[in-house]
Specification:
By secondary structure, this protein is an alpha/beta fold. The protein is globular, with a radius of gyration of 22 Å. The structure holds zinc ion (2 copies). It is an enzyme of class 1 (oxidoreductase).
């Protein structure tokens, strides 16, 4: 039996469209040491391929992160396969809310060095010793209380357009940097209640373990991240303590959680929360640009880049890179990171 999909994309999408049964879209993740990730990967591939499951699943020595769709009539059989593996026994499963069952059209299971890149060696800290998981409502009730510190574990371009009230939002553009900065910033707060959050929860699994390893005593994390929080406060009719937009790489590049725009166009300063990459390919700066400036600068970050793109650059227009070193990151790279963290809702 082959352990990879070989059929082309169009054919697969066609097959999905013609299915006469329903699918459930689910997600789950767990940090748990695996001796042989490749063997585990091949084994679950066999199990889930046989049950006609689709999805995008990452396996590493440190655990598993999965988003998948399972045929409804085979769901019980799917649950039974989980009992075959220590790591999957009693794993908490999240069920997608707006579920058309068409999120995936094939089964992809990849072995990666890490679930979330932290730049640290395996065993540098115990990734399975995680903080306490708080539901959206529990987290909501703690935000703003005395002796608590809310920490945004996402990168700065994510927190720039949306974050919890009063949150510490470090100027980091990688998770690795983030861990170092946060540990540093909070070194005198080790006895306070720490409330961590990220997009879908998986970064906080790691961050909470890292902070506990560094002597923080009361580490808590938002289970399911801002995605889950937004759903829960909506159904509980609470006023959001998250202001602005949750940066997610769906078609709209995220959705405003409470309707506010808290960030600004990097060029004219008017309220705007839409990221783009500079259209000059030799620049490719990630930045925030409004529609007017997009038209004015032809999608570029500076007049210099617009000239370079148009092929009209002279010596005076010698390329000057954008105003922030930090923003030198392509949207494609950001998207790849979010894919790995499986925080994209319904990604085909
Ligand atoms: Zn503008
Ligand atoms: Zn540029």
């Amino acid at each position: 039996m082959q352990l990879h999909n070989k059929i082309n994309r169009e054919e697969l999408k066609q097959k999905l469209a013609e299915e006469t049964f329903r699918r459930k879209t689910i997600s789950f993740y767990k940090y748990h040491y695996l001796d042989n990730p490749q063997e585990f990967r091949d084994s679950i591939y066999r199990d889930w391929f046989a049950l006609n499951c689709f999805g995008r699943i990452y396996v590493a020595r440190e655990g598993i992160n999965a988003q998948m769709s399972v045929p409804e009539h085979l769901f019980e059989s799917f649950l039974k396969t989980l009992d075959n593996y220590q790591i999957l026994k009693e794993i908490p499963i999240k069920y997608a809310i707006e579920d058309d069952g068409k999120s995936f059209y094939k089964l992809t299971i990849k072995v990666r060095p890490k679930l979330v890149a932290d730049g640290l060696d395996d065993g540098a800290y115990d990734v399975t010793n995680v903080g306490r998981h708080l539901s959206g409502e529990e987290f909501h009730n703690h935000v703003g209380k005395e002796n608590t510190v809310v920490v945004d574990m996402r990168n700065f371009y994510e927190s720039e357009i949306g974050h919890f009230e009063g949150a510490v939002c470090p100027q980091a553009d990688t998770f690795r940097e983030e861990l170092e900065i946060v540990t540093d910033l909070l070194q005198n707060e080790k006895n306070k209640k720490i409330l961590l959050y990220c997009t879908g929860g998986i970064r906080c699994e790691k961050a909470s373990a890292y902070l506990k390893h560094h002597g923080f005593n009361d580490v808590n994390q938002l289970h399911g991240g801002v995605l889950e929080y937004a759903r829960q406060i909506k159904s509980a009719k609470l006023d959001s303590k998250f202001i602005g937009k949750n940066f997610v790489f769906d078609d709209r590049l995220g959705e405003s959680v409470n309707g506010q725009i808290i960030s600004h166009c990097h060029q004219c300063g008017k309220p705007c929360d839409t990221h783009t990459n500079c259209a000059n390919n030799s620049c490719h700066l990630l930045f925030i640009q409004c529609e007017e400036c997009k038209a004015k600068y032809d999608g570029c970050c500076t007049p210099e880049c617009a000239h370079e793109k148009a092929g009209t650059a002279t010596a005076e227009h010698r390329h000057i890179f954008g105003n922030s070193r930090k923003y030198r990151k392509s949207l494609a790279l950001v998207r790849e990171e979010q894919l790995q963290q499986n925080t994209l809702p319904h990604q085909p």
